[in-house]
Amino acid sequence: MVKERARILVVGGGYVGMYTALRLQRKLKAELRRGEVEITVVTPDPYMTYQPFLPEAAAGSISPRHVVVPLRRVLPRCHVVVGEVISVDHEVRTAAVSTPATAEEGMAADLLGYDEIVLAPGSVSRTLPVPGLAEYGIGFKTVEEAIGLRNHVLEQLDIASSTRDPAIRDAALTFVFVGGGYAGVEALAELEDMARYAVRYYHNIRPEDMRWILVEASDRILPEVGAELGRYTVTQLRRRNVQVLLETRLDSCADRVAVLSDGQRFPTRTVVWTAGVKPHPVLAATDLPLTPRGRLRCTAELTVDGAAHAWGAGDAAAVPDVTAADPGTDTAPNAQHAVRQARTLGDNIAHALRGEPLETYAHRYVGSVASLGFHKGVAQVYGRKLKGYPAWFMHRVYHLSRVPTFNRKARVLAEWTLAGLFKREIVSLGSLEHPRAEFELAAGGKPPHSPSDDPKGSS
């Protein structure tokens, strides 16, 4: 039984934040009903994004609304606050929270008190000071970015089909992806697959007219699936006329020209940046111990080392891997660990409130799966290597089993079934990003936003 009323603050609504709150709802059901516990989740968005489905959402295989999980629906016993924690003073147990309401009221932030805090803000895109990247680069970490990129790619086909200028046409049909990890490889493979299908409906564009380029600074791609499957992936992409440039960096993309470290220059209207992530900057605005890389220093019980009543997991936390052969190894910052850490974290908070012993987080890495487009993929699971259709099928089965809620599982499965029975949808709805443009023009305002005006061409 909980000794006193406990206020639990969960910072972040991603994998760890949502699953921890979900676990706490179940483990502390009686305490919540009696009013002995209250759980507050502060998140920038009122939904959790299932990021492994972003490439398929970009390719049109899954509807965007089925890639996200509404937090208020799955966390009915929690208080969900849409906003951002901008700083934490753990010594006095308060967090400064900025919300849409504080902005309207002209306030910097509200102070929110807590007794236990779970720091799970996740990560943000890791960028480098590359000239032109801020102006012309496109990210691939949110559902909005994924759908914006889909619209952008289809609009480039429209531009290439309608222009008489060969330079504009070539730039529109050149797509540069930076980063050879999951996000970069899966996004490129799915969108190349979609674009290859789409050009059959353009009378003057052939698949070989498009140029797809993957730039990776290291000597391999998809390191998570092993060297052999990484080489296989490179071979398969090159057979699809994708240029895979290893040990190469993007030096500049100013003036819509991608300049690479090997001297190659590609005029392009599309530069997609997926070159890694870094811990959320809010961690630096706390008085909690951090590693040299800016992650929370945590114990195997998922407590913040040396800070009572503070907890961490996921991308934001450096959690010791007790199953690793080498001491000092941390668990990888991926979804497989995040979901499992959240369960242990929820259990341990309940144990702590009841004065019970804490559990140690221990999970041996199972393996990895990656999609390379429709019916194509690679996988390494329990030491077994799969390629092609079996790997693609395992990718879908695994992620269908992991996407939260039965509602989402059923909807995703239905969409996959329909996608297998009917042809792809290749409609660009870029105007959704600027829905008032036409009305503004009719009302005497500025003219509608056009793709050529946008540095990213994503309107």
Describe the protein.
Strands 5-2-1-9-21 form a 5-stranded parallel β-sheet. The chain has a 5-stranded parallel β-sheet with strand order 11-18-12-13-14. It has a domain of 159 residues: FAD/NAD(P)-binding domain (3-Layer(bba) Sandwich). Helices cover 33% and strands 22% of the residues.
Overall geometry comes to globular
Report the CATH architecture of the domain at 6-44 and 83-125 and 278-354: 3-Layer(bba) Sandwich
Return the average pLDDT rounded to an integer: 89
- Helix content range of the residues, please? 25-40%
Count of alpha and pi helical runs: 14
Main sheet strand line-up: 5-2-1-9-21
CATH fold field value of the domain at 6-44 and 83-125 and 278-354: FAD/NAD(P)-binding domain
The stretches of 5 or more residues where confidence is low (pLDDT under 50) are: 455-459
The largest pleated sheet is described as: 5 strands, parallel
Number of strand segments:
25
N-end to C-end Cα span = 55 Å
Briefly note the structural class of the backbone: alpha/beta
Which CATH class of the domain at 6-44 and 83-125 and 278-354? Answer: Alpha Beta
User: Roughly how many Å is the radius of gyration?
Assistant: 23 Å
Tell me the CATH superfamily of the domain at 6-44 and 83-125 and 278-354.
FAD/NAD(P)-binding domain
Percentage of residues in DSSP E strands: 15-25%
